[in-house]
Amino acid sequence: MRRGRRLMLLAAAILAAGLGYLVFEARVAREFDALDSSSPARILARPWTLRAGDRVDPRRIIDHLEKVGYRSVSGGTPQTGEFRARGRDLLVGRRALRLGGLFEPGVQARVRFRSNGRISAIRDVEGNDLARLLLDPEVIGTSLGERSRDRVPVRLDEVPGHLVDALLTVEDRRFHEHGALDLRRIAGAALSNLRQRRVAEGGSTITQQLARTLFLSTDRTVLRKVREAAIAVALERRFSKQRLLEAYVNHIYLGQHRGAAIHGFGRAAQFYFGRDVSELTLGQSAMLVGIVRGPNVYSPHRHPERARARRDVVLRQMHAVGHLDDARHDAELEADPEIRRPPQRNFDARWYLDFMRRELAAADASLNPEGAGPAVISSLVPELQRAAEAAVSNGIRSMERLRPRLTEQATPLQGALVALDPRTGDILAMVGGRSYGESQFNRAADARRQPGSAFKPVVALAALTPGADPSYTLASVLKDEPLALDTPAGVWEPANADRAFLGPIKLREALEGSRNVPFARLGLAVGPRRIIETARRLGIEGPLAPYPSLALGASEVTLLELTAAYAVLAAEGRRTPPRSAIAVFGRDGAIRETTAGRSDAVISPAEAYLITSALRGVVERGTGRGVREAGYRGPVAAKSGTTNGSRDAWFVGYTPELAVGVWVGFDDGTPIGLSGSRAALPIFADFMIRVLGSHGGRGFRAPAGVEWIDIQPETGLRAGWGCRGEPELFLAGTAPEASCGYPIRRWGRGRPLRTLPRR
């Protein structure tokens, strides 16, 4: 009876243990799948693609290649990660590119330039024409997740055979023959350690090492070894050898960089040799395998001689088991492993990265890069980001140096800049303040401030809308005379910055000179409803109060949305919402999400060109002429803005390929005592010169539907015989019919061509 009870208890215990192990095994398998499928999100800059016909300075390409870790060579055909400039040719050994799971093999390409700076042809080394050459995008950020592990997942079939041979030779020669544990190796290691009276040899299999890397700490205790063995058994029971070997290749610890742990041969190949794992030489593979024993001891960057000696040990072991013949073994021992240091990122895009992560998460929570494992192709252009950071930093320091009182306030002076591609909505650069380390608040995207006169182009556009009542043209005469308006809040009396009045003035001149009183009158005539409707069409989404002061920029906007509104003018009336991410790639290489810009025609090209014409006049003759004084000579349309008490200084402008907005001020609203033309304009001009050069880029194109007519400026009427005229731009058919001159009769006819009493 007792014996039967004991047997039943024993059976129950065995059953419970078995069930417990199955539960344990299932949990291990589930966690393994989760850990193996997740990886850091690599956030890449907007790719630069070269095509025949492009106009580009070869020095820009060389500068880019150097920044992404390419090496200049003086002779021969450049190999992977190298380039050579020769006459009008640029030879590039373009590395293999990996965008998430999407893979593009490396290529040796020849880029040939004409004397005018255009690319005439792009060919491979065999002379075949290439439709394009995609250059390595800079990595602008990496979301490492809670474990702070930096890795680039690769498939086992993408790993060179010699790396797998080296790995199995050194770490687990019987990997395909034993189970989770290699008892023969464990026994041999124990005997060796006893003889040497120290731990000279380990007996862990690749599966045990994988279990330790993924699930356990590095503490050397008996309990940890037992747990390691149990997890290894569970992994071997649930997964194939190929799957486990691939996981090992992707997860083994191989070093440290800036607080992040380098895991996997995919990332290590980039980190130590500046190339994709598929392009590793035998010697480089041997060196990486040698690192496994002690990444800090054998780091090629910190201890190159130790790393090389360890590589030689791996090569000798491969030779001993027959993976290398004598000639290959001897040649690899003499070969230079070509160790490369990772390129240094010399810009700080953290405001932009915060904004991009927030935008992706808002669109789809699964696209949040934190630990999700995609690769994100961003819209950021590092060259422009560097220019933006330098312009903001230099501009703020210059103001503080010339006006020390600005450093005596409770909070530091701040500046922000955003640059957009008007055609795509791409955010090319974003600076949210003077120092991200001191304040992470993004003043480019999140600060709502009054734009002042920088809002006047919106009012002018509302007034110029064809068919509206009342309707205006750039030649319409406005009154620059004292104005007092009774409002529920009291009498509103707008004033000009110079406290003077000019009398009758053309709408164009009022915009160029940023005259407040004429624009206040214009806003009252047009009405706040029409102004708000126009602002909404341009993409301004924040609250806009329907008060008379709206016309003078009293309602708050963000720098990003105001710059995007100007971008509509640059894009000839097409609105494309700003975007920070171009595409999100999953681990399988498929595009999980693309944020292709949706472009809508919200105003006609002719209407946009009217405002562009006036804003070009701002730069040539008005409040923006400091752009010319700063040395920028290229085509540009822009407008300054200053709020009451000089609390906010703005300057926003554009060319056909670039829209840029700058804001300067204090977070707490302390007056800076400077106008937009004195505080924000210098930063704008500095940025434009850095990006487009002093002569600028493409010019503006006059669309169909506009015409130049000579107008008498005092009356806004056509210039006739006997009165002075100057050219003005109109929408076709909207120019005044009446003339300011004497009636002119056609020869031989009885009716006048133009009639109007003399003024």
Structure, described:
It is a single chain. This protein has 759 residues and is α+β, with helices and mostly antiparallel strands. Helices cover 36% and strands 19% of the residues. The protein is built from 22 helices and 33 strands. The strands form 11 sheets. A 5-stranded mixed sheet has the order 11-1-15-23-24, covered by helices on one side. A hairpin with a 4-residue loop joins strand 29 (706-712) and strand 30. The radius of gyration is 34 Å and the shape is elongated. The termini are far apart. The relative contact order is 0.08. Mean pLDDT is 88; it is low at 743-759.
Topology:
Blueprint lengths: L1 H36 L3 E4 L3 E3 L7 H10 L3 E2 L9 E5 L2 E6 L2 E3 L2 E3 L2 E7 L5 E6 L8 E3 L3 E5 L5 E2 L10 H11 L11 H14 L9 H10 L6 H17 L2 H11 L1 E5 L2 E4 L1 H9 L8 H10 L12 H17 L5 H9 L15 H14 L11 E4 L3 H21 L11 E7 L6 E5 L24 H9 L12 E4 L4 E3 L2 E3 L10 E4 H6 L3 H11 L1 H10 L21 H12 L3 E2 L5 E5 L5 E4 L5 E2 L3 H17 L4 H4 L7 E6 L5 E8 L2 E8 L10 H4 L1 H12 L13 E7 L4 E2 L7 E6 L12 E2 L6 E3 L5
Parallel strand pairs: 1-15, 3-4, 12-14
Antiparallel strand pairs: 1-11, 2-10, 4-5, 5-8, 6-7, 8-9, 13-14, 15-23, 16-17, 16-28, 18-21, 19-20, 22-25, 23-24, 26-27, 27-28, 29-30, 29-31, 32-33
Helix pairs in contact: 1-6, 3-9, 3-10, 5-6, 5-7, 9-10, 10-11, 13-22, 14-16, 14-17, 14-19
